[in-house]
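Please, structure for the following, as tokens.
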Amino acid sequence: MKIRQLSEGAINRIAAGEVIERPASAVKELVENAIDAGASRIEVVTAAGGKSLIRVTDDGEGMGAEDLSLAVERHCTSKLAEDDLFDIRTLGFRGEALPSIGSVSRLSIQTRHAADEHGWQVTVEGGAKSGPVPAAQTKGTRVEIRDLFFSTPARLKFLKSDRAETAAITEVVRRLALAHPEIRFQMAGPERQTADYAAARGEGAQEARIAQVLGRDFVENAMRISAEREGVRLEGLAGLPTFHRANSLSQFFFVNGRPVRDKMLLSALRGAYADVLARDRHPVVVLFVDIEPKLVDVNVHPAKADVRFRDGQLVRGLVVGAIKQALVDAGHRASTSNATAAVDILARSAQGRPAFSGITPQRPAPAASFDWQSSSFRPFDGRTQVNGAPAPAFEEEQSGFGGFATPSADARANDAASPEETQDLPLGAARAQVHETYIIAQTESGIVIVDQHAAHERLVYERLKAALAEKGVARQILLIPEVVELSEDDAARLVERAEDLEAVGLVVEAFGPGAVAVRETPALLGDLDIRGLIHDLVDEIAEWDSANGLRGRLDHVAATMACHGSVRAGRRMRPEEMNALLREMEATPLSGQCNHGRPTWIELKLGDIERLFGRK
């Protein structure tokens, strides 16, 4: 078969297939162009999920006639200095977006530079360009795309519903809005609710924009991240472990202001939360990585969604270390959303009760009645009048506290009251233990409910980890070294990590080409499947360029030991034990959640309780 030169139209449509996967991809390219043009306001209007209309308007720098004519030609860009592909300081630089969009749609661009008397317009329909011609236009640029993929109808069949495509566009704009709080973003269209993210400036601009996009609830339940290592800076917010989601869609990473979905960063995030979050739950984070452009390659993918760091382990270590330190600094802090959920549950439960009918049901008489004259309680003997009416007599002999059978929930912290001075501490003073599972503590502004087993489980786990860190991981020597055969590449990668593996108790060495010999294993893991462990580690190194799986196994064993060695639900605790548990929680990092990511305590403010009773 003879080799032939592809037509310009075919080349553009191929490029469009790489760059413009769906309407959201076109919106991303246009909004990034507006940001690079210095816009302070960007408006996005769509119809039919972007299939019939996409309009992006900005008040940026604008273009003159000559620049506008070149803008719709392939590989023409103003964002690349001296053809240096490793010094990218803008969001777009390939020069393929506009000609690619024009080859598969009806594209119209109106723009005006501040120095020009009037604006200019150019149109591209299915790759055929006309213009530029004079046009009435204020300073800035308006790009309008109609009938996307009309020249490649097969692509339309692979698009999702209008609702799904609209949601994808919204997500693209939200991500870019998070990275640029100084710009006002507006979204409108017949199939969506209008969204308006006001520009924010000053010291709290970033948090203000995050609250606009993700809600104030996240900001109130997030930890501030700020760290730097060898010129790489990390800033942003990371949610508390008890503030989590069922998927990873609420995880936002930005590298030099560019939204990315980098698997190394996602792996680092998973590693940072591995100790405090269940495997099927995902943290909420908004993190910004600032790095010298020459140390990161953003030219990995046509859509620029992936990046490659020159020193990936440095960036990974920065992310993991910064989040872990923030978790330690958070101490016993837990998500306030747990209290909100508890109040909602209680409110729904109260609404479901039958209304009072005026008929007094038969019930046991109270153990005591209040004497209004002496302002004191007096024991109830079965003959005392309550509210002036004769009280019913009991025929059955009662036993237990106050004349009744032993209650299922003991709402007393014995007869001893907790010291008043402990109420001003974060978790307050223990007042009761109910169902021999939950501790009720009183604070200055409300009450705290503690799950005694979950709380003690975290405390024991942290002690075990501290002991491992202090004394090191005990190793057991194998009488006969285990030889594991691998591919030569896998064996070489594993041997390169031998020093890291030895630090967690696994001693390996090369055993000829394509094999390793395991001489020592962590004693904590007992009788383990060595071959399975080695293959798991090899797979992890190949995928993530790290060998943290062994540390994860050790932590899992420690967590299991902590679970079985902690105070069990159903054990009655003395007041001094309960208060000692509260004080240790306050002094222990990560004690706001157990080893499985569940909260260990919930606080109800007095205002929440008063609302339940209709007092507010």
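The two ends are 83 Å apart (CA to CA). The domain at 459-565 is CATH 3.30.1370.100 (Ribosomal Protein S8; Chain: A, domain 1).
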